[in-house]
Design brief:
Layout lengths: L8 H10 L3 E6 L2 E8 L2 E8 L6 H11 L3 H6 L2
């Protein structure tokens, strides 16, 4: 698994949108992204920070069911 970069939440959201997610809503400092699938949908929550910690980004990717390789390739 490659090392995840330190990026802002805006960059993370933009990358997840490239991977098929759309911005469903924003509540306070958290953006909820969704992706429709044949058997349901995937929901992930991204906190709005200037710089996401590696563990936070890893958790977002786990929620989004996206591998680190796919995420980095679409940055």
């Amino acid at each position: 698994m490659p090392r995840l970069p330190r990026i802002s939440s805006k960059e993370a959201i933009r990358t997840l949108k490239r991977l098929g997610f759309y911005e469903a809503r924003q509540t306070g400092s958290h953006v909820v992204l969704k992706k429709a699938l044949a058997d349901g949908e995937i929901v992930c929550v991204v906190p709005l920070h200037n710089e996401l910690k590696i563990g936070t980004l890893s958790g977002v990717l786990k929620q989004a069911q996206v591998t680190a390789d796919d995420f980095i390739a679409n940055l």
